[in-house]
Specification:
Layout (H helix, E strand, L loop, with lengths): L24 E2 L8 H4 L11 H8 L10 H21 L8 H19 L22 H6 L3 H15 L6 E2 L2 E2 L2 H6 L6 H22 L2 H15 L16 H9 L8 H22 L2 H12 L6 H13 L6 H19 L3 H17 L6 H10 L3 H29 L7 E2 L3 H8 L4 H11 L4 H15 L10 H13 L2 H20 L1 H14 L5 H22 L2 H11 L1 H6 L4 H13 L9 H10 L3 H11 L1 H12 L11 H24 L1 E2 L3 E2 L2 H14 L4 H27 L13
Helix pairs in contact: 2-14, 2-28, 3-4, 3-11, 3-21, 4-6, 4-22, 6-8, 8-9, 8-10, 8-22, 9-22, 11-16, 11-20, 11-21, 11-22, 12-13, 12-18, 13-14, 13-15, 14-15, 14-28, 15-17, 15-28, 15-29, 16-17, 16-27, 17-30, 17-31, 19-20, 22-25, 23-24, 24-25, 24-27, 25-27, 27-30, 28-29, 31-32, 31-33, 32-33
Length: 734
Amino acid sequence: MSAVRSSEDPVAQPSSHDAAGQGVSVDGATTRLPAEERGGPGHPCRAPDPRDLAAQFEDEKPGRTLTGRVGLLVTGTTVAIALFTLVQAFRPLAQGSKYYLIIFLAGVLPIVFLAYPSGLRPLRRTATGAPTGDGGDARADRGRPTAADWLLAAAALVTCLYPVLPFALGDGGGGYDAFLDRQGLLAGPDVVMGTVLLLLLLEACRRTTGWILPAVCLAFLGYGYYGGLLPQGWPVAHAGLDFDQLVDAFYNSDSGFYGTPLDVAATYIVLFTIYGAVLDLSGAGRFFVELSAAAFRRSRTAAGRTAVASGFLLGTVSGSGAATTVSIGAVTWPILRRAGYPAERAGGMLAAAGVGAILSPPTLGAAAFIIAEYLGVSYLQVLGWATVPTILYYLGILLSVEIDARRSGVRPVVIDAGSAGRLLLRFGYHFLSLFVIIGLLAVGASATRAVVAATVLAAALSFLDRRHRLTPPRLVAALSAGVRGVLAVSAVCAAAGIITATTTRTGLGPQAAALLVGGAQALASDPTVVLALTALLAAVALSLLGLAVPVTASFVIGWVIIGPALLHLGVAAPAAAMFVFYFAVLSEVSPPTALAAVAAAAVTGGRLVPTMWQTLRYALPAYLIPIAFVLTPTGLGLLGIGGPGRIAAAGLASALGVAVLAVAAGGWLPGVGPAGVPERICGALAGLALLWLEPVPVAAGVLLAAATVAGVLVRRGSAGRTGGPTTTPGEDDK
């Protein structure tokens, strides 16, 4: 749910601090960081604008900064779309949801071509007619829409509105009901319009996310068309579809362009991006960062704890891993540097904390709303499923922070951020809108109505702080930013209809699931081992898929291809869906792309590959917990399913497992001292055993964990008897 970052998009920025975080003081010396650290105007070390930096590393490419009449046109259109979606939450159109999706796509798709440059640089020619290869004037393409952009925008408007236009066009047209009546037997104009819309969506995805997702969509399209030519003995062969049938599936069915992914973007995601923009402009981003700093200002690990807490709180505003990473990094990296954190270790911490924004209630990521729609459950249930894994995730990060502080001899840093109590008394009202969402969901309100109510409340509460009052111009900016934030994901969700429709029409999902399960069964015959191998293969496949396509598309593809394999082996639907969700999200921290880690390295100036490995160490629980809740029925307790006893048993065992894994990865037992290689190996085995939530493995894990602690104690005692150091340099307390 990340926003398009431009000069008019204030989403997810801690507004009380500039790009280098000079609004926080360290060591109690001043109220601003020294100029040599933050960089003044024109300073060669001055940090870039976090919004521009975040845009470079998000799944979506940065959009244009539109000004003048074009800017007014886009702002007016986006505000109209925002008001339309807000009204739709309470007064749905009588024609039904598909009619609404047609209107919504007709509104957002043309703006994509105006707001995002093509990125194609035409060759210039010399006086002799030879191409120069200099790529033309890219700045002109970035700065304003070209004639081609306007033409594509007009074509998008016509093709999107064609199904609802009341006049006839040859043997096509004739209005919405007539268009639906031709389902399965499209007229010539229907096929032409559907084909043009198909091409436009591929181009929109290319502009917003790059070439890979359009290539994946074309691969599915080719499979649908040429699959009938495959040898019929192959498991993935099918009878074949002609082009008209494919266009019908995309353009005039409930599984194509106007399927569940676009429905989620148009009804949930857009409302949450509007809410995030309103919440941030009301000063919530500033409050969350200052509260995090104030809460830990006098602790030994204040710098690391502030970074982690800021990531969690800012995630309620952003919902984007890369954007949250850059936002908290811009503020907390100078503090981490003062404390003595190496750039790579600090970058790993920032990236892991930033990605936690997508995994953490109450907003999660866009795919979470798709889970609710696919499984036919309330969004509150999805939030419940994510609660315990989120706690375990941040437990792992915080333990790693504590371990690093002691192992590396991090210096205590006093953060002059005022009193946390006073901040809560003065600005704690920013939490109220979040509580309203949870409360309304709990009493049975829909997620759309809950977030609209929270948005209205956040706008009203902004007047409690005169610096952040949502005056009409600022409210217009928030509404526009909210819709601009959903442009890219809307294009991705509509294009995902190519994948879901092709999979549905050809039966690819069950066939691919059979191949995946068959591969696991070729290696083992025991059902438990087969399930474990299938989960590992699925995790690898989802991680690789996520390297190439955005999180939302990765989840959709993973659910239709890998989801059936897990369901076939008896995994509960909530566990299968959350498994796919977590590994789709973890692509942001998985090498070699690891967008959040790349963004963190850009902020800290650290080496890229070591930053990625540090991120993996901090984010380790997020890779293991999903496997834990698909392997055994007890694992469902991690999703809050199965009663208090199962939830408590699964939570406690997993928490101990996460703790010993943190010790194994960090090489230090807090309160005791360093762990050697034997203890780290023992701790790793203990953590893996504890996450296999069955009585025997858990008992073995507890014994191994005890052996790990005993080994560290023996090592400490031996070092003391021989006069050797019991701590690393700079370590004077535990």
